[in-house]
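Hi V.,

Quick status before I head out on leave. The structure for the redesign project is tokenized and pasted below; the design run finished overnight.
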């Protein structure tokens, strides 16, 4: 078999990586959706075996980690779970297994997001918090995890209180805490311990106590969020996954004669026209009030 023929077996892998390198996450999403129409042309269920069987024959091994990272980033991005790519230790093959088990793209995406949400909650409970960021979680629709994350960070910070050991102030635990590292960076402390007579030691203890009080009094840490993968309509009702997909596909509607409908039309139900009987009663009431006013 020629070198070119061997290389062709990785053509689909190349197409995935090409989209990832160009930052074309929509392109990766289209490739994933293609699996549900034609598994032969979109062999996502075989990409691990394709790499395993053909990479060493036709590619440089030092390029393999970069390729696997690109595929992982592309898949997580296409499923709108980029915020969990570093935080979770799930291999991309496991994510794909959950996705491809479903009969449709919409259901598969929903299953993956529910699966990853459960895993993230477990990480938060175990205080594996280094790669979980509130703003990124919110961006990906996992905002409902933020109160749990903040509570876990606070608990981690409480346990990380600097410990006095003779003439030494030990800050190793503080360096392992997300909030603790913030204080250490602000004070420019890079050592794992300080002498108690060092002015920085007293300042650090004061900063620790002040920040702990600030965190415990921060009411914004208990924000309310809607459920996983949900978006809200203008009327405040959650969109289903199917409706969300339809909204993305729906072409933008042009306003008639260049006039935009007022937002209140979408927020409130249209007013019903009064019946003839109601209109007659209203006119009679108006005339009666008019006569009473003349008197």
């Amino acid at each position: 078999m020629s070198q070119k023929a061997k290389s062709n077996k990785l053509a689909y892998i190349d197409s995935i990586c090409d989209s990832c390198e160009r930052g074309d996450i929509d392109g990766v999403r289209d490739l994933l959706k293609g699996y549900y129409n034609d598994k032969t042309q979109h062999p996502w269920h075989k990409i691990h075996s394709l790499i395993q069987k053909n990479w060493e024959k036709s590619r440089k091994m030092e390029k393999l980690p970069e390729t696997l990272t690109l595929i992982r980033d592309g898949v997580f991005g296409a499923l709108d779970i980029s915020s969990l790519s570093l935080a979770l230790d799930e291999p991309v093959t496991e994510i794909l297994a959950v996705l491809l088990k479903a009969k449709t793209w919409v259901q598969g995406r929903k299953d993956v997001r529910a699966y990853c949400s459960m895993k993230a909650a477990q990480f938060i409970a175990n205080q594996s918090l280094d790669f979980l960021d509130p703003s990124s979680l919110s961006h990906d629709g996992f905002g409902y995890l933020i109160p749990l994350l903040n509570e876990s960070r606070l608990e981690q910070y409480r346990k990380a209180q600097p410990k006095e050991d003779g003439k030494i102030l030990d800050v190793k635990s503080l360096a392992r805490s997300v909030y603790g590292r913030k204080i250490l960076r602000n004070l420019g402390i890079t050592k794992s311990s300080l002498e108690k007579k060092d002015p920085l030691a007293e300042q650090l203890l004061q900063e620790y106590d002040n920040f702990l009080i600030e965190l415990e009094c921060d009411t914004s840490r208990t924000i309310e969020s809607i459920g996983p993968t949900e978006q809200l309509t203008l009327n405040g009702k959650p969109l289903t996954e199917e409706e969300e997909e339809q909204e993305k596909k729906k072409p933008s509607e042009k306003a008639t004669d260049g006039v935009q409908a007022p937002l209140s039309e979408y927020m409130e139900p249209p007013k019903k026209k009064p019946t003839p009987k109601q209109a007659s009663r209203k006119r009679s009431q108006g005339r009666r009030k008019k006569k009473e006013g003349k008197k």
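Above is the designed sequence. The chain is about 60% helix and 5% strand.

G. will cover questions while I'm gone.

Best,
W.
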